[in-house]
């Protein structure tokens, strides 16, 4: 498996991970994306911005070319403004989409990394999450943006919903990698 090639050649790359493989693979995925030398919009759903950046830096990944969208930090406290992070008040799909569109337009992001789409199933039913993912593949401002969506095969206590989401996402993904 050549992750860099998969990221470079796919407009919409779906990566299905086991919970056990997630921590190991996330850094390989981010390194592959970083090697494309594109600006990255990293949507943090599973962990807050501070934890993501700390983990990336521990693994030798420079985050200067990243713009983060964080939906968790505001849940715990009011975060102080940070230049390369957009803090959202809730995991509302419309707010996330507007923040992504803004990052793509204002920061010239050409790669979108969504970590993890399956975590959205904690807040939303499967169909709105699927509709959201599909909307991210459409539209004029999305056509030159490579999307990498991470989905956990199991975990978060909703395996049936995860399986259904994965099955539906595979229908419109350019490529699916299963790392389980």
Defining key terms:
180 residues; Rossmann fold; globular; seven-stranded parallel sheet; alpha/beta
Describe the fold and architecture:
With 180 residues, the protein is of the alpha/beta class. It has a single domain, classed as P-loop containing nucleotide triphosphate hydrolases (Rossmann fold), CATH 3.40.50.300. It is 43% helix and 20% strand. It is built from seven helices and seven strands. It has helices at residues 3-9, 19-35, 49-58, 73-76, 93-107, 126-137, 159-170; strands at residues 12-17, 40-44, 66-70, 85-87, 111-115, 146-152, 175-179. Strands 4-3-2-5-6-1-7 form a seven-stranded parallel sheet, with helices on both faces. Strand 2, helix 3 (49-58) and strand 3 form a beta-alpha-beta unit. Helix 1 (3-9) crosses helix 2 (19-35) and helix 6 packs parallel to helix 7. It is globular. The model has no long low-confidence stretch (mean pLDDT 88).
Question: Which secondary structure elements does this structure contain, and how are they paired or packed?
Answer:
Layout: H1 3-9, E1 12-17, H2 19-35, E2 40-44, H3 49-58, E3 66-70, H4 73-76, E4 85-87, H5 93-107, E5 111-115, H6 126-137, E6 146-152, H7 159-170, E7 175-179
Parallel strand pairs: 1-6, 1-7, 2-3, 2-5, 3-4, 5-6
């Amino acid at each position: 498996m050549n992750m860099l090639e998969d990221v470079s050649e796919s407009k919409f790359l779906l990566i299905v991970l086991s919970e056990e493989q997630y921590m190991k693979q996330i850094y390989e995925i981010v390194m592959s994306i970083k090697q494309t030398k594109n600006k990255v919009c990293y949507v943090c759903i599973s962990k807050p911005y501070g934890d993501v950046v700390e983990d990336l830096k521990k693994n030798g990944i420079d985050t200067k070319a990243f713009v983060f969208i964080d939906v968790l930090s505001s849940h715990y406290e009011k975060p102080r403004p940070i230049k390369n992070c957009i803090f959202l008040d809730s995991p509302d799909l419309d707010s996330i989409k507007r923040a992504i569109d803004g990052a793509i337009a204002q920061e010239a992001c050409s790669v979108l990394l969504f970590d993890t789409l399956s975590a959205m199933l904690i807040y939303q039913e499967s169909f709105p999450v699927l509709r959201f993912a599909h909307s991210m593949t459409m539209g004029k401002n999305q056509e030159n943006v490579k999307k990498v969506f991470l989905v956990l095969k199991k975990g978060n206590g909703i395996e049936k919903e995860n399986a259904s989401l994965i099955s539906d996402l595979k229908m419109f993904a350019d490529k699916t990698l299963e790392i389980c």
